[in-house]
């Protein structure tokens, strides 16, 4: 990881990208940064004339985007991130600012044609901490300018480009990374800055923040180059001291001009990370299965020998597992022993409010055996239950519910994800106009409970198979002021659906083949009155169907269902009489799609 050393400083932090831009996500993912995406709701409406220079507007907008997310996460989601990154890209020519105006005005002139323009991206890096209930923020911001010149462009070419759809959602109305690249004569400066994120400047800023000049590095007045640190070995050490800067064994060296020396091996860090990914997943699964995080939550710091005695494992094996967890940033290791990181306490303990324990155990016991047969799955194009579990897959859910133990495990897994995503799904749209909702396949009622909290006038019914409904009591929230949720058992493919003016399908559609979806959506459409709505919670793929990665990887389970893009959901829902579809990419593990039953024609 010599190429992006300073990013290692963010490894143990909860980093949030406050941007919906898939390009920004890709630029940062490509260099190995791990982060959550929480798109900002800040409206880009700052008064341009109040800024002395265009870049000041971009910087301020980036800052407001990031602050809005930091505040929302702190207040609404009770999850304070460590670092929030916001960005805003604008295009400026002769002090004219462009949004999507490739072709301009009545004379249909392209204001960029044959001319040089500037692309500014403002970036804000917000470090957050909570003091009691207050959020404290430290803002670092900067901007980068890149000059771009377009060739002389014919009107025909421009219209063809506009009709390609690419200009939509891009600063200046072009995408230099794709078709728009054909319009460009030259680029002076950072190409990625034009695409939406000035990566090089960002790394230099992190270097300034995390490696302030010391006696070891005074010769580098400014960070003209990114300092080299061997972060591959030290991914978990977010706070290690600045001696990393020059001292690490195996690190590449800076030459006198501050550049990485030629002799530094250029490791394909992303590929290496993928190669080791299965080891990391399995280490997490085993530590979760052994309930190591639970033991440490109540008793840490503990030595390996004590943990081994408690969980009944070998001392040497346990020590290696604990070290692996520390290297992965899940545990902290000190001379006193091992203890949980904050995120292990929140997400990996089985009783944590937003525990992922259930889903992790499901991943280990169910998904892992399926994925070890991925090669056969790809060759045969089908699920591999017969190889993984010695019996053919029947109905997806009947498989889960054949034994009490598997059913509990599956319900705990579904509950983990539903609980973690419920707030974002419930608030993706304003649902206050609805009086009654029915969550079809709503399982433990995690989303239903969130809905009644947020919309006190909403009555929510959870409709699921009798064997599920019989097991929901364990998952019900405690608290006297909980508004009631009604549980009704039935099969949504066969039985009468409860009446409601909002139906919900959360993580249902991606599981079923087209014939089953046809039955389900026809039945919902038949009971839905005009003006009633359907809320679908799924991961929405981008139109290229390569993002988000989680959805693309989930597809490899080879269920008969599939993941869909926004336009595919729109098309599918339209077929069953649902229109005015709105899609909200939430930045959480599930996105939200809301559509309305068409009024009958007069
Ligand atoms: O050549 C290219 N130029 C610009 C882009 C993309 O354009 C947008 C810029 O818009 P903005 O900074 O407002 O960011 P949004 O996409 O609206 O997301 P936020 O949630 O951060 O507001 C940006 O996506 C660039 O990537 C491009 O792709 N090519």
UniProtKB/TrEMBL annotation:
Residues 237-263 are annotated as: Disordered. Gene3D superfamilies: 3.90.950.10, Vaccinia Virus protein VP39 (3.40.50.150), Winged helix-like DNA-binding domain superfamily/Winged helix DNA-binding domain (1.10.10.10). One of its GO terms (biological process) is methylation. The keyword Cell division does not apply. Residues 272-350 form the O-methyltransferase dimerisation domain. Keywords: Hydrolase, Methyltransferase, S-adenosyl-L-methionine, Transferase. It comes from the Eukaryota. Residues 371-578 form the O-methyltransferase C-terminal domain. GO terms for molecular function: nucleoside triphosphate diphosphatase activity; O-methyltransferase activity; protein dimerization activity. Its cofactor is a divalent metal cation. Homodimer. This is Acetylserotonin O-methyltransferase like. It comes from Strix occidentalis caurina (northern spotted owl).
């Amino acid at each position: 990881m010599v190429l992006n050393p300073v990013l290692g400083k963010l490894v143990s932090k909860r980093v949030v990208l406050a941007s919906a831009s898939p390009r920004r996500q890709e630029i940062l993912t490509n260099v190995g940064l791990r982060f959550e995406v929480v798109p900002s709701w800040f409206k880009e409406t700052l008064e341009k004339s109040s800024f002395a220079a265009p870049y000041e507007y971009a910087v301020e907008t980036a800052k407001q985007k990031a602050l809005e997310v930091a505040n929302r996460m702190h207040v609404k989601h009770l999850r304070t991130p460590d670092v929030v990154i916001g960005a805003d890209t604008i295009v400026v020519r002769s002090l004219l600012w462009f949004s999507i105006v490739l072709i301009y005005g009545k004379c249909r002139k392209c204001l960029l044609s044959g001319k040089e323009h500037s692309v500014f991206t403002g970036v804000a890096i917000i470090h957050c901490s909570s003091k009691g209930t207050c959020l404290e923020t430290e803002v670092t911001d900067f901007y980068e300018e890149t000059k771009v010149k377009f060739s002389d462009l014919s009107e025909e070419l421009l219209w063809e480009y506009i009709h390609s759809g690419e200009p939509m959602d891009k600063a200046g109305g072009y995408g230099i990374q794709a078709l728009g690249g054909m319009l460009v004569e030259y680029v002076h400066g950072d190409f990625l800055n034009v695409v939406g994120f000035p990566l090089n400047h960002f790394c230099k800023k992190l270097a300034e923040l995390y490696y302030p000049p010391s006696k070891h590095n005074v010769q580098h007045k400014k960070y003209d180059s990114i300092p080299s640190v061997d972060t591959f070995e030290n991914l978990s050490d977010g706070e290690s001291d600045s001696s990393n800067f020059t001292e690490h064994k195996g690190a590449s060296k800076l030459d006198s001009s501050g550049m990485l020396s030629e002799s530094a091996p250029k490791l394909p860090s992303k590929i290496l990370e993928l190669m080791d990914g299965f080891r990391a997943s399995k280490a997490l699964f085993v530590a979760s299965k052994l309930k190591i995080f639970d033991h440490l939550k109540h008793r840490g710091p503990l030595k390996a020998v004590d943990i081994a005695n408690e969980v009944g494992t070998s001392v040497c094996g346990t020590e290696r597992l604990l070290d692996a967890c520390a290297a992965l940033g899940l545990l902290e290791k000190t001379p006193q022993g091992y203890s949980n990181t904050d995120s292990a306490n929140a997400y990996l303990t089985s009783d944590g409010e937003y525990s992922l324990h259930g889903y992790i155990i499901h991943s280990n016991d169910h998904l892992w055996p399926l994925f070890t047969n991925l090669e056969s799955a790809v060759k045969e194009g089908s699920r591999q239950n017969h190889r993984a579990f010695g019996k053919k897959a029947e109905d997806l859910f009947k498989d889960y519910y054949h034994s009490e133990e598997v059913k509990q495990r599956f319900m705990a897994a579904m509950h983990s994800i539903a609980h973690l995503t419920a707030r974002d799904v419930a608030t993706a749209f304003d649902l206050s106009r609805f009086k009654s909702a029915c969550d079809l396949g709503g399982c433990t009622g995690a989303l239903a409970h969130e809905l009644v909290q947020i919309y006190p006038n909403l009555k929510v019914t959870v409709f699921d198979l009798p064997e599920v409904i019989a097991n929901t009591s364990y998952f019900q929230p405690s608290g006297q002021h909980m508004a009631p949720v009604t549980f009704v058992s039935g099969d949504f493919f066969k039985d009468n659906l409860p009446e409601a003016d909002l139906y919900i399908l959360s993580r249902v559609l991606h599981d079923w083949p087209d014939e089953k979806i046809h039955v389900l959506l026809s039945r919902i459409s038949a009971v839905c009155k005009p003006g009633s709505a359907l809320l679908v919670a799924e991961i929405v793929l981008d139109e290229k169907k390569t993002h988000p990665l989680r959805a693309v990887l989930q597809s490899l389970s080879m269920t008969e269902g599939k993941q869909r893009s926004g336009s595919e959901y729109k098309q599918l829902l339209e077929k069953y009489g649902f229109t005015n579809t709105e899609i909200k990419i939430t930045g959480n593990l599930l996105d939200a799609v809301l559509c309305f039953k068409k009024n009958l024609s007069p």
